[in-house]
Amino acid sequence: MANRKYIVGNWKMNGDHAALAEAKAIAQAAAAHAGVDAALCPPATLIAPMAEAVKGFAVGGQDCHAEPKGAFTGSMSAGLLQDAGATLTIVGHSERREGFGESDAAVQAKALAAMTTGLDVILCVGEPKNVREDAEAEAYVLNQLDGSLPDVAAGRTLAVAYEPIWAIGTGLTPTADDVRVMHAAIRGKLIDRYGPELGAATRILYGGSVTGDNATELLGVDNVDGALVGGASLTAAKFVPIIEAAAAL
Ligand code: PGA
């Protein structure tokens, strides 16, 4: 059975209180598509006001610390995200892995902390351009998954986002066939790791320059259970067509 589509917006370091109007419009439009799960991950400062403004719509963090509390200036635990109203968090985004030197082991610890706290997790993987050019993308991504998938039962509470780094914010996307091959490989890894039932139920999102124009094609690829969307998630005008594309499949 196909998994429910999951469309998640990652606002990165964008969005202030004025942007809550966009979140409200997105949540309202998403409510009309009961067959699709949608969520927004705003900056940490907006989690509480957004969760309050869009009750019933999922709001998440973009990262969390692996420890539940302590002297970690500037960091956010999974429990604090939950306390602010988050029901999910992204971990292992390439902008964290590359910009903040997060290893697979660090990402795994964050995923585990979030899941045991009760947050749903979107765990990101993806290859840089030179690895794709060397035809080593699949091995690279499977190796990332070996090191960063949490050792706990997955299923609905865990999603993997395949985000080729060279496709993020560039307007470039892999071909549908490249996405199909990568997502099949990721599915195989999830089944190896969690067994046939949970491995099949763990959603695999594609991310990297998803827009209303390419969503139907990308979301229609085998084993693409949703999308993680950056730039095109910042406004209802751009994000709602992606939710609608998922609903129409
Ligand atoms: P993009 O970002 O949609 O702007 O390419 C995707 C992401 O980084 O999650």
Report on the structure:
With 249 residues, the chain is an alpha/beta fold. The protein has a single domain (5-248), classed as Alpha-Beta Barrel (TIM Barrel), CATH 3.20.20. It has 10 helices and 8 strands. The chain has an 8-stranded parallel barrel with strand order 1-2-3-4-5-6-7-8, surrounded by 7 helices. Helix 9 links the parallel strand 7 (203-207) and strand 8. The protein is globular and about 45 Å long. The protein starts with a strand and ends with a helix. It binds 2-phosphoglycolic acid.
- Basic shape: globular
What's the CATH architecture? Alpha-Beta Barrel
Radius of gyration: 17 Å
Order of helices and strands: EHEHEHEHHEHHEHEHEH
Tally the structural domains. 1
DSSP summary, beta strand count: 8
Give a quick account of the main beta sheet: strands, pairing sense, barrel closure. Answer: 8 strands, parallel, barrel
Poorly predicted sequence stretches spanning 5 or more consecutive residues:
none
Distance between the termini: 14 Å
How many helical elements?
10
Mean pLDDT across all amino acids: 96
* Strand ordering within the main sheet: 1-2-3-4-5-6-7-8
User: What structural class should be given to the helix and strand makeup?
Assistant: alpha/beta
Which bin fits the share of residues in helices?
A: 40-55%
Question: What is the CATH superfamily?
Answer: Aldolase class I
- The first-level CATH class is given as Alpha Beta
> Which ligands occur here?
2-phosphoglycolic acid
What is the strand content?
15-25%
CATH topology term: TIM Barrel
